[in-house]
Amino acid sequence: MRFEDCSIRARLALFTGVAVGALCIVFSVVLLFAINKMATQNLSKEVTAVGELTAYYVDRGELVNPLPPIPQNLIRPVQVVDPRGQVVAATSDLQNRPPMAHFTPKSPNRVASGVVCSSVFPTGGCHIVVAQQVYRNGDWTIYSAAPTLPFFVYPGVAALLIAGTAVFTVAVAYGARHTVTRSLQPVDAIRAQLDHIRSSNLSRRVPVPMAEDEIHRLAQSVNETLNRLETMFEQQRRFCSDASHELRTPIAAIRAQLEYALLAPEDVDLNRLCDDVLPSVERLQSITSDLLMLTRLDAGEPCVRDSVDLAELVAVELNSHQMGTKVVHRLAPHVIVRGDREQLRQLICNLLQNAQRHACSAVTITLRQENGDRRYTPGVAELEVLDDGIGIAADQRETVFQRFTRLDTARSRDAGGIGLGLPIARQIAERHGGTLTIQDSDRGARFVVRLPADP
């Protein structure tokens, strides 16, 4: 099994165990090195003490061979070399053997040490050798030695460190796995709850742990995402229901008229039938066009960003529509914004149609750009469409921007509205970095579009 296939618990336990084991090994090596260094220093002092004791007897002329008296706890290989370089006395284990070393101390210390690996020593191997000089009718040299210590010094200490490293590593790895397992229990609960959430029931939420840690914040984010998802699905269901309802009405009218024509073809006037069916077809076309526009806006399709003269665009829209009410326009020239010409035309068209639908006698269109007036944000083009109808209550000004929403006073289908024009207009404005809001007015509804001006 690959490392990537292991669970988080196993990977964290493995990583923690390896890291702790490596640290324990490094610590053990450093500790053994320190112990070895201290033990070697102590051994060197002991060897030096043996040499000093022998030097004392040489200085007093009490030299004997083999070399007593040396206390049992200080017995070490010792040799005494006379000024001619001959071994004149040695401990019993070095009798009749050549000098164990050939270096001599340098004045004024008269003591030198080194590691000598030679077959002179009965036990073989390497020894720490300390050379000391005594003057008695010449320079006498006393060599004392002791076997060098292994790196681990004491096998018991090395065994204890190895066992401690193994036990400590296993304990830490087990503790890390156990801690991670307990910490991830809320994650398992969140996953189990998510497995039971279906699109048909988005009201369930994942449990939020009491401890305010990363998992607590994760659970809150998941619940917020589920809230948005539930809202989106509810909007989608309502949208499909409203769209089906709006489409069913003209389709039912067309079907009824065609069935009546089939039942009595001799009584049907073809021109009259076409005149009766055509409004329903136009309504179907309007609904499908608005639905297609909403789909494109929701999908975020890229649009061409050109410099657009809003005054020119409003004038074109006014000329291309037969306005059933009086239109008063105050259009400042050369109000330029950057955006998609077709989408901005659609925005203006929807606002004009909405105003004409609810106006009593007149529609006022005002276009301006900030030029020192503090009432308007610098660099903003403002388009205002005002009708003299009954207006919109303050608590319903956001409701009219919901899809397929029509106020009670505008529920008549003869008015032609299906509740998509204003949502499309606001979405176009927001896509161009602007806003579409309803503001206070003395009479009627006052729709205000603000778009960033093109510098």
Automatic annotation (TrEMBL):
<dbReference type="Pfam" id="PF00512">
    <property type="entry name" value="HisKA"/>
</dbReference>
<dbReference type="InterPro" id="IPR036097">
    <property type="entry name" value="HisK_dim/P_sf"/>
</dbReference>
<protein>
    <recommendedName>
        <fullName>histidine kinase</fullName>
        <ecNumber>2.7.13.3</ecNumber>
    </recommendedName>
</protein>
<dbReference type="Pfam" id="PF00672">
    <property type="entry name" value="HAMP"/>
</dbReference>
<dbReference type="InterPro" id="IPR004358">
    <property type="entry name" value="Sig_transdc_His_kin-like_C"/>
</dbReference>
<keyword id="KW-0418">Kinase</keyword>
<dbReference type="GO" id="GO:0005886">
    <property type="term" value="C:plasma membrane"/>
</dbReference>
<dbReference type="InterPro" id="IPR005467">
    <property type="entry name" value="His_kinase_dom"/>
</dbReference>
<keyword id="KW-0812">Transmembrane</keyword>
<dbReference type="InterPro" id="IPR003594">
    <property type="entry name" value="HATPase_dom"/>
</dbReference>
<keyword id="KW-0597">Phosphoprotein</keyword>
<dbReference type="InterPro" id="IPR036890">
    <property type="entry name" value="HATPase_C_sf"/>
</dbReference>
<dbReference type="InterPro" id="IPR003660">
    <property type="entry name" value="HAMP_dom"/>
</dbReference>
<keyword id="KW-0808">Transferase</keyword>
<keyword id="KW-0902">Two-component regulatory system</keyword>
<feature type="domain" description="Histidine kinase">
    <location>
        <begin position="242"/>
        <end position="455"/>
    </location>
</feature>
<dbReference type="InterPro" id="IPR050428">
    <property type="entry name" value="TCS_sensor_his_kinase"/>
</dbReference>
<feature type="domain" description="HAMP">
    <location>
        <begin position="181"/>
        <end position="234"/>
    </location>
</feature>
<keyword id="KW-0472">Membrane</keyword>
<feature type="transmembrane region" description="Helical">
    <location>
        <begin position="12"/>
        <end position="35"/>
    </location>
</feature>
<dbReference type="Pfam" id="PF02518">
    <property type="entry name" value="HATPase_c"/>
</dbReference>
<dbReference type="GO" id="GO:0000155">
    <property type="term" value="F:phosphorelay sensor kinase activity"/>
</dbReference>
<keyword id="KW-1133">Transmembrane helix</keyword>
<dbReference type="InterPro" id="IPR003661">
    <property type="entry name" value="HisK_dim/P_dom"/>
</dbReference>
<feature type="transmembrane region" description="Helical">
    <location>
        <begin position="152"/>
        <end position="176"/>
    </location>
</feature>
